[in-house]
Amino acid sequence: MGAAPEKHLSLQDPQAPGLGGGRRSRQTMDTSESKLSLVTKAEKVPAWHRSGLNLDFGFHGLLLAAALAVLGIVALIVAELIVRSTLAWQKFGLHFLAGSEWDPVSGMFGALPFIYGTLVSSVIALVIAVPLAVSVAVFVTEMCPKLLRKPIAYATELLAAIPSVIYGLWAIFVLVPILRVYVDAWLRRYFAWTGLFSGPAYGVGMLAAGTVLAIMIIPIISSITREVLAAVPQHQREAALALGATRWEMIRVAVLRNARAGITGAVILGLGRALGETMAVTMVIGNRPEIARSLFAPGYTMASVIANEFAEAADDLYLSALMEVGLALFLVTIVVNILARLMIWTVTRGLPVRAHAQ
Amino acid sequence: MSTAVEVRNLKAWFGPTEALHGIDMSIASTHATAVIGPSGCGKSTFIRCLNRMHETNPEARAEGEVKIGGMDIYGVPAVDVRRRVGMVFQKANPFPTMSIYDNVAAGLKLNGMRDRRVLDEVVEHSLQQAALWEEVKDVLKKKSGASLSGGQQQRLCIARSLAVDPEVLLMDEPASALDPISTAKIEDLIFELKQKLTIVIVTHNMQQASRVAEFTGFFLMGSLVEFDRTEKIFTNPSDKRTEDYITGRFG
Amino acid sequence: MPNKYRKLRRQLMDYFFTGLAGSLSVVVVGALVAIFAYLVIRGAGALNFSFFTEPPRPVGEAGGGMANGILGSLMILAIASVFGVPVGIAAGVYLAEFGRHRLAKLVRFTADVLNGVPSIVIGLVAYGLVVIEQRHFSAFAGGVGLAIMMIPTVTRSTEEMLLLVPQAVREAALGLGIPQWRTTVSIILATARSGIITGVMLAFARVAGETAPLLFTAFGNQFWSFSPGQPIAALPLQIFTYAISPFDEWHRQAWAGALVLVILIVGTTTAVRFLFLRSTLGGAR
Question: What are the backbone dihedrals phi and psi of residue A200, each rounded to the nearest 5 degrees, phi first?
Fold first, then answer.
């Protein structure tokens, strides 16, 4: 290992010229000496500030407490739902989820009609929303003129800003009459053979609920799909185009295929929203705890039954049963959400981390 | 001539990788010492260990002894070390939301200094020392630090470091992102500053090292290959590897 | 198959799918326009001065307004912000500045999960936590419910904004010997200020329209209430009650309320987007 440095440092030569050390005189600095003495180090930093380390410790603790609060809240939600529904699951056990009779007067509580209604309305919503949402995303990221990109993206985001209760209001006075007068008859004429469109058409019912849900989940599906499409590397598109692909072929081969898992994730996230959506659905689904094949028939969802009946549930068993519906809804949406996050993550994780890289 | 920074057997890691393999170095006070070497040789890591900035990377770890003015920097709080050892970074990094004045005063203010009169004085003095005062004295509180040109920003960062009155100023390739004129200004500044404080400058530019520094250390693959008077390093190095690097036979 | 024919087919497919995606986009944007237009027409027709100054009149009597609901909403939102914003920001700072180990990952993940919990379930929990304990409905209970909904949104947006602050700014501050907490509070938070405000306002706008968590916490009230310990009216609740009522006059009021609520929310969202997001970190990058 090279020359021992001490040897050279012992050379008493403060003005060591180096190769260019003498280029400057030191005169310029002379005046500064007196000025700086005005402010000695002790004056600059108050003594209490030297204990910055303890404050750091406390600060870290404070932030940690807030972060733990997030975990605590979720734990509290779980605990609250489990404890408050004890009565119901002790009395009915698994039959609670399989039973189809919901009669508060006689104390019979089976949640199957709500589970069915929740699933069916959400599936209808997905069937309508997915093609629309994915189309918007593909159109905005891959096809449309630059000028239109922002307005369309902004419009879909505005849809997300409208509160659920206002969708419900709009659905009662606009959507339901339209369904009753035009759409129902049309579906009945061409699709009666499926058995899904029969019985009296009130306007309110599963179909109305599913349609309004569809409008509500379009923004989330399309905005996440947009993100996922944007994550597809540009060179993939170029590779397809260089092979002589048309734009649509490029989208199909290079973009959609690469983004498949992420789009599925977006759809599942939309499903999660649809499952838990309350107000708009409550206002147009008809609120009848029955399992009917026809989509025109009124139904009920897990969220709606809580919204409608919780405030007037008088006895403990009734309250407890509604809490258990809430618990089931919570668990289902959690599972669906986690699934969606994992799928989206598999697509976007390859992106460079914005964080700390600078 | 006294020693400002005494480094003994300094080792540094990034995760499991050892980036510095036991550095020994005595840095002369009120002189400039240059640290040169090819990219990735550990020269930046080395000076970041001198004010414990190295450990702000959560993967990073350092071991060994660094004494500054007799104080073992790994034995006192990092915050106290950094008050006495200023640092200027490769890319000028003024606080984007602060005015020029607030940028310079930041170190004092955030360490609890409230006296307006003293702050004004320190700000003016620091900007003068950084040769920026004349250019900005009329817009001190009007313009944000980020609105200055690249070279001015870097001198602002130097002023900001000087305001806390450090004993040692570490400069990590301070001019590598600047044009030749701005670079010349920074170099002039180093001449001024080293009359009063100790400067350690990392540079990939050997001419710069030879211009500004009395002493030069050559790093290669995490080791200090040779440390000597700059003149000697550049004209008559004792190690073959130093000679290869100086004469351009290395990266 | 002749080459020419195949080429034409490919070109036609391209046109077809472009047209399809384009027209479906038009449908979505059209739906938005239709909803907004209808809302504005019905709402503006029903809005008048007394809407903002009077509480509801008894059924059958014309006139009256939702002034108590507007005030109630603001009170509930204020309570929610007092609890939700500090916790959300602090947790976000934790994730951004110390968030590289397993615990932080868990917190981040949990925040995302919490974001997906249905609002009606949050209502149940707020009921269990506050209403059962206090034995009566209250504005406070509603505020707790909305606070729980604000926290994950604020946390994640704060974290995102802080991660946009260049590492160089942190280094500059630490390099001056400024303690970590000071660096974070005075330098990093200050740098990301407008972004964090944006996140908070967006979270605020999001919960402002929430109805489900208020159903059995704030409960609603036909009269003025100024006490956080009492059942209180809220704009979304009142819209809900009126919308499902059989009275035409109430339907009119519901549309007026809906217009006011949407203006409040969309106004906040849009204003924040234009005022703050543009300037966020303008100098830092």
Answer: -65, 145
